[in-house]
Amino acid sequence: MQVKINSDWKNILQDEFDKPYFKELLKFVDNEYANNTCFPLKEEVFAAFNYCDLESLKVVIIGQDPYHDTGQANGLCFSVKDGVKHPPSLINIFKEISTDLNKEIPQSGNLEKWAKQGVLLLNATLTVRAHEAGSHQKKGWETFTDEVIKHISHQKKDVVFLLWGGFAKKKAKLINKKKHFILESGHPSPLSANRGYWFGNKHFSKTNKFLTSLQKPKIEW
Fold this sequence. Notes:
single chain, 221 residues, alpha/beta, 4-stranded parallel β-sheet, two-stranded antiparallel ribbon, 9 helices, globular
C-alpha cells in the first residue's frame, strides 16, 4: 500500500513511515484488503490528511474506528458518503449543532466541508474489516495517529481539540495544554448521549468563540 498523503504532512511524518512498525502495518493492511472487504476505500485511507493540511489546521476531532458497514466510511471520522443514512452518533452531532448554533440539520452526512475549513477528522485506527468493529486495532495505527497528535501539539499552537468519550479523552496526555484549547465531553453515541453526557456541551459555539478571539475564521458547522 502506498501512502498518498499531503506533502506538508509527509514532510513531518516521513520518519514514522520509515519505521519498522509502520512498514509492518502497511503489509497487514495490504493483506487485509487483498483477502477481505475493508473500509474505507484504499484511496481514502489518508483522506483526513489530504482534505486538511497542517498549515490550515484549526480543529482536531478524534474518532476511534471507521464505520464498518458497506458504503459508509470515507476516511473522515464520524463522516459518511453523500446519500448515506446518518449513523446514530452523527445524528446526535447534528442535533447538538442544531440546538447550539440554531442551524438546520443537513441532508448529507459528508463532513468534507468541515475538513476543507481546517478540521482534522482523525480516526485513531484508519482501516477496518467489513462488519467487524475494531478488527484493525492494535496493529500499529494507534501508534501512528498518536504521533500525529504529538506532532500537531508540538508544531502548532492554538488548535482546538474536541475529545468525545473515554477513548478520545485518553489522548489529552499527548497534547500541550498550555498551547492548545481542549474541550471534552461524553461521546455522541446514543448510549452516552441519552445518559446526558453529550447534549448541551456547546462544543461548536465554544470552538468558534475561541477561533474568533484569535481573529481566525469560524468553522461553518
